[in-house]
Amino acid sequence: RNETLLPIDYQAVEIITPDMVFVSQGGRWGAYDLNASRLILPVEYDELEYVSLTHINTRLNDQWSTIAIQE
Questions:
Q1: Of 38, 37, 14, whose CA–CA distance to 24 is shortest?
Q2: What does the pLDDT look like over 15-51, one tens digit per residue?
Q3: What is the pTM of this model?
Q4: By CB neighbour count within 10 A (0-12 exposed, 13-18 middle, 19+ buried), where does 48 fall?
Q5: Angle at alpha carbon of residue 12, lines to 50 and 28, rounded to 5°
Q6: 3-class DSSP state for residue 1?
Q7: DSSP label of 36
Q8: What are residue 14's phi and psi, to 5 degrees?
């Protein structure tokens, strides 16, 4: 069966879980939910770090934050 899991708009893709990937575009990173076929974090961060199914650490410039997500 042919099915699109992720648009090919991204320069890099990092598999995080079977349902979530980090995607890069123009040097920035975001998180994409493969089940919902949508971004769960916009592609605007310098760095992302997977913490758990519900939290991702983000870095924008020199500031780190922990963001709660819903897959």
A1: 14
A2: 999 999 999 999 999 999 988 889 999 999 999 999 9
A3: 0.86
A4: buried
A5: 70
A6: coil
A7: T
A8: -120, 120
